[in-house]
Amino acid sequence: MKKLIFGLFIIITVHQISFSQSGWFQQTSGTNVDLYSIYFVNSNTGYATGYVSYPNLISVILKTTNSGVNWVNIKQDTLKFLSSIFFVDENSGYVVGDSPIGAPILKTTDGGVTWSTQYMQTNMLYSVYFIDSNTGFIAGKYGVMLNTSNSGANWIMHQISYHDLFSVNFININTGYSVGGGGIPGTSGTIYKTTNCGLNWIDQSIFNSNFVLQSISFPNQNTGYTEGHTGSQSAVLKTINGGANWIINLTNDSLWFNYLYFTNELTGYTIGNEGLIIKTTNGCGSFTNQNSNVNRNLYSIFFTDNNTGYIVGQLGTILKTTNGGEPIGIRKISSSSPGSYKLFTNYPNPFNPSTKIKFDIPLSRGVPEGRGVLTQLTIFDILGREVTTLVNEQLKPGSYEVEWNGSNYASGIYFYTLKTDNFSGTKKMILLK
């Protein structure tokens, strides 16, 4: 048993900043089922799964082959709770969960066209992770850990804890971690580590802690993060020595954390209830709040590179970012007063998925320089329907630039219009995916 060292105690400060457009865009999932897990094989191909139990039990598996522009429901079931998904490659993948007749393990070898199902005689399975095409692990209720060495043909069951295990993750073929809490009454903050590919698990649990831990991320051998909640408080925990000691960073926010994902040693995201997205870029030294544009519970997050990520959640919510979730807003690139209004051609054009639009605002006759003029920059589709408004505010004289992300929109011709009391101009741009 390792003694918890409180080497650092940081209150998370959430900074709310107003911008014209969020860096997260909602995608159309085609379902109202709650989505609990998402996994991408590459930049184009991804899968998501989840379920809803009321008024009727329905589970789904969704797939995209074009970076989330379109999602297809490739499997729907009325007898299973599906909670976690993992793909080894574009063809081979696994989904786990629960059902009235046992905990199901679903496997596909053809990219989700067909699925075979095994039923394990245990309670709900929460998390699946494969190290390679043969070796995989599944964490479940009441400390159950399953492992396979033959691509799921056979599974060996171990009980490594008396508490629920909500997440399992491996750094390499030997070293892995599983976190959880709750289940049998007693100590929460459950953390287990293996250094021999699951043959033995070392208890690194955090005593005198009521946090139920739900996900874990290790960007390198020594540095790892996990998150959890007590019901009234949420926490992000960090280790810099492979889990020997864990440092707790507490938030006074009553919203629950549900999942955590780090793209590198310093940059990570924690998501939670009511659309909560929190980002750190300095290894949990500080945190900023990102605008999700939704008020739904968010359950899982996955990044395909440092900038491109996806979040799934309640009522079929799927969010995407291509810039690390940073706000996309208006940027003043020159304070010199232009001689006239001007709307420039966007660059690049054609574009995929983002483009930048520049425009000039001169000093208008009869308008005090300190007040500026009401300026609107609006996007329309080819039928003249308003798509979004990028700018709607008082702007002082100067040159400005705005970025528009078309990830959530179909390929085609769009128009952007700059409008003030004294000027109106429109130009064409092409979104080509």
Describe this protein's structure:
The protein is mainly beta and 433 residues long. The chain has two domains: 10-321, YVTN repeat-like/Quinoprotein amine dehydrogenase (Methylamine Dehydrogenase, Chain H); 331-431, Macroglobulin (MG2) domain (Immunoglobulin-like, Sandwich). It has strands spanning 10-11, 25-27, 35-40, 46-52, 58-64, 72-77, 81-87, 93-98, 103-108, 116-120, 125-130, 136-140, 144-148, 156-159, 165-170, 176-180, 190-194, 202-203, 212-217, 224-229, 234-239, 247-251, 257-262, 268-272, 277-280, 288-290, 298-303, 309-313, 318-321, 331-334, 342-343, 354-361, 373-381, 386-395, 398-405, 412-419, 424-431. It has a five-stranded mixed beta sheet with strand order 1-22-21-20-19, with no helix packed on it. A hairpin with a 5-residue loop joins β3 (35-40) and β4 (46-52). The radius of gyration is 24 Å and the shape is elongated. Residues 1-20 have low confidence and may be disordered.
Strand content: over 45%
Low-confidence stretches: 1-20
Instruction: List how many beta strands DSSP finds.
Output: 37
Main β-sheet: number of strands, strand sense, barrel status?
5 strands, mixed
Structural class: mainly beta
Domains, number = 2
CATH topology of the largest domain: Methylamine Dehydrogenase, Chain H
Distance between the termini: 53 Å
CATH homologous superfamily label of the largest domain: YVTN repeat-like/Quinoprotein amine dehydrogenase
User: What is the overall shape?
Assistant: elongated
Helix content, binned percent: under 10%
Average the pLDDT over all residues and give the rounded result.
88
Biggest sheet, spatial arrangement of strands = 1-22-21-20-19
